[in-house]
Amino acid sequence: EIVLTQSPDTLSLSPGERATLSCRAGQSLTNNQLAWYQQKPGQAPRLLIYGASSRATGIPDRFSGSASGTDFTLTISRLEPEDFAVYYCQQYDRSPKTFGQGTRLEIK
Amino acid sequence: EAQLVESGGGLVQPGRSLRLSCAASGFTFEDYAMHWVRQAPGRGLEWVAGLFWDGSNIDYADSVKGRFTISRDNAKSSLFLQMNSLRAEDTALYYCTKELRKWIGAFDVWGQGTMVTVSS
Question: Does the CB of A53 have a partner CB in chain B at under 8 Å?
Answer without folding.
Answer: no
